[in-house]
Amino acid sequence: MDGTEKSKACILVVDDEKNIQETLSRHFRFLGYDVDTVDNGSLALDALAKKRYEVVITDISMPVMDGIQLLRAIRKEYPMVHCIIMTGYVTMENILSCMRLGADTCIYKPFEDLKEMEEAVESAVAYIDRWQKKLKTLLRMKP
Amino acid sequence: MFSQSKVLVIDDDQSTLDILKFNLEKMGYACVISDKPKLTMDLAQKFDPDLFILDLIMPEISGIQLCHDIKANPLFKDRPVIFLTAAEQESDKLQAFESGAVDYIQKPFKVGELKVRIKNQLELYRNTKKLSELCNDMERLAEQRAKQLFHADRLATIGILAAGVAHEINNTTAFINGNVCTFDTFWKTIEPCLMANAGKDKEQDERLKFIINETPKLIECMKEGVKRISRIVEVLRAFYRKEEVAKIPFNLKKCIDMSLQMCGKMIRDRQITVKTEAKDTYVIGSAQQMEQVIVNLVVNGIDAMEKSQDPSLTVKLYSENNQAHVEVIDTGTGIPDDIIKKIWDPFFTTKETGKGTGLGLAIARSIVNDHGGEITVANCHGGGAKFKITLSLAK
Amino acid sequence: MSSVIVQRWGMEPAEKKRILDELGNIPEELYNELVDCFLADIPKKIEQLKTAIQNGNYKSIKAVSHGIKGVSANLRLDKLYELSRELELAGSNNEELAGIEKKFRIFLEAIDSFSFSWGRK
Fold first, then answer.
1. A4 pLDDT more than 50
2. Were both Cys, which of B18, B83, B313, B394 would link to B249 (CB 3.0–4.6 Å)?
3. Domain locations in chain C?
4. From the list C66, C71, C81, which residue is nearest B57 (CB)?
5. Which among B109, B135, B169 is the end of a domain?
6. Residue B156: what pLDDT?
7. What is the ipTM of this complex?
8. Cβ of B85 and C70 within 8 Å?
9. Which pLDDT score is estimated for B240?
């Protein structure tokens, strides 16, 4: 939104609760991101096949395909995508799975505020930015 | 614990009465004799005998009639009646037993035999009484257990509901909060625009000033509301299936602060003076569960002070001997000696049905034990009670 | 009254001791008192029996002799017990009055004898 070149990062929000989709979409669009939303893990994989997303924010308990299964699939097929898990049903088991499957972080519902999520998204985008810059620099270095 | 057995002897013949009285008293029984059969029921009411010895053939009333009278009386109907008589006919014996007598001894009687028979009947009566008392106790216990099961069943249902409800509420409060946060962010853009719009109309300006002033507070309030809803949901966790206690270090002082906040309304409504003496102290386990424990103790303390003039609650947190100690002290009525050991029992409550589940302290103790700690209670000298939790400090 | 006179149908010391024993070791004074009462009451009973036999009142014969039987049983006065028992049975069975009178007389003799030996008359 400010003058500096900021690649519009794409976020995919996965949650079976429409209100949550809307809330997060509104919030992050206002912050300048491009946001799409889907209802479950299976639809999320469909979306990932069609468009490049930098960050996926997903719930765990969803019908058809839950967050853990989605995470597993993303790790396999889209290793560069960063995942942020959000969940209202906290169990040790789930959290450990998220950790082991390489999620960036886990945020508990209800959110105290969206700062934690904003920071997680920023951090993920910064990571990608950093590597992109490195690649660009490398290309420029070639004669 | 053997109370003296009492025997009432009715016979129109003095020799029987005297011989029996002598022997029965020698056996250690209390004995009342009478040669006036008409007075039998009066004497029975006054003396309350455990056993009756009756003659069969008497001038004014027959022994059979007396036996019927005794059996017809709800107070005495289960007490043994023995006939002691010179009557010899089979029919007499039959009649005697039919009228409800438990034994029949013929004169001349062997005193030794009489003594044994009386002793046996008294023992039998005593045992029957004990059995019937045990049955009553069993019945009462069964009723209690039934109530407990009903309770447990209700809790199980609540447990199932709680899990579902908690999830629903968490999801809902998530997006309420999310939107509040978004609005907060919007507001940062809106506010300067509002300011820019000022100066056109005096009344409008007043209203704008008001809005600019109030909106941040409004937003804060909404956030606070959502936080409180979440805390309430947390308390329901007690009824979920218990998970492993997370072994994370946490600050007990925060637990205390949180718990007192949870009870904030109760404290304000009942005008309780709350004193806290606490320093940052770290232990290992689940902060939420410990909060639950402290909330329980605080609520109990407040309830104990319901009738107090000057209710005051003190919460202390300190470390000693490598352990953390939390004390919750009230100035209430204290706990009577006869129940102080029972308060930890599941479902034990002094509140009327529906007011307390009786689970609070049982769960509290269970949680504290899971954390490797100890929870105790003692009455205070000036009145009131002190609950103390001891936990190992986090290394 | 402590000494017991040994007489025909009387009570030997050994016998008395046996009786006291059987009755649960009651004190001798109590036993003596009871026998005294029995003997004091007997004349009235005898009168009742006499009247009953005269009137052929079997019910009364049975009742009175039953009473005597009971006490003699308690006091272990075996002979008197047996005789009063016979009288009671005779009354129950509506025996011939002549027969009953005979038994009655034997009974009276026994009473006399016992009273005498007991030291009372």
1. no
2. B394
3. 13-118
4. C66
5. B109
6. 62
7. 0.83
8. yes
9. 54
pTM (two decimals): 0.47
Q: Kind of pairing, strands B81-85 and B103-106?
A: parallel
Contact residues on chain B for C23, CB-CB shorter than 8 A: 19, 23, 111
B323-330 and B385-392 strand pairing: antiparallel
- B27: buried, middle or exposed (CB in 10 Å: 19+, 13-18, 0-12)? middle
Lookup result for tokens 């009478």: B34
Q: How many CB pairs under 8 A join A and B?
A: 69
Query: Does domain A10-141 fall into CATH 1.10.4160.10?
Result: no
Residues of A in contact with B174 (CB under 8 A): 17, 20, 23, 86, 88, 109-111
Residue B382, φ and ψ in degrees, nearest 5: -85, 10
Does the beta-carbon distance from A110 to B170 stay under 8 Å? yes
- The model's pLDDT over A44-58, given as tens digits with 9 standing for 90+, comes to 999 999 999 999 999
DSSP-derived letter for residue A61 is: -
Rounded-to-integer distance, Cα B9 and Cα B18, Å: 10
CATH number of C13-118: 1.20.120.160
Amino acid in position B212: I
Domain membership of residue B233 as a residue range? 147-239
* Tokens representing residue B383 in the block: 């009145």
* 121 residues of chain C, pLDDT tens digit each: 333 333 344 577 788 888 888 888 888 888 989 999 999 999 999 999 999 999 988 989 999 999 999 999 999 898 899 999 999 999 888 888 888 899 899 999 999 888 888 874 3
Residue of chain B whose alpha carbon sits nearest to that of C71: B15
Under the banding of pLDDT at 50, 70 and 90, the label for residue B161 is: low
**Residue B88: its chain C contacts at CB < 8 A?**
85
